[in-house]
Write a structure and sequence with these properties.
With 65 residues, the chain is an alpha+beta fold. The chain has one domain. The protein is built from one helix and three strands. A three-stranded antiparallel sheet has the order 1-2-3, with no helix packed on it. The longest helix has 11 residues.
Length: 65
């Protein structure tokens, strides 16, 4: 499972959008720390370029609560 850049999806009451991460940083990501990221893996897929089919680093941000 891999969420595409620009894709929107629901996580609970939150609407989340997938963005390209220019620097590979997780600091602005909704799932920003490793424990949350691991828990969400089944819902969001991988965010690191080397693990993704599109070779892009991505992050996930809330669009709407």
């Amino acid at each position: 499972m891999e969420r595409k850049v620009g894709e929107k999806f629901k996580d609970g009451d939150n609407l989340i959008k997938v963005y390209k991460s220019e620097d590979g940083s997780c600091t602005q990501c909704f799932y920003g720390d490793e424990s949350n990221c691991t828990k969400a893996l089944g819902l969001v897929g991988y965010c690191a370029a080397e693990m993704r089919d599109d070779d892009e680093n991505v992050l996930f941000k809330i669009v709407k609560k």
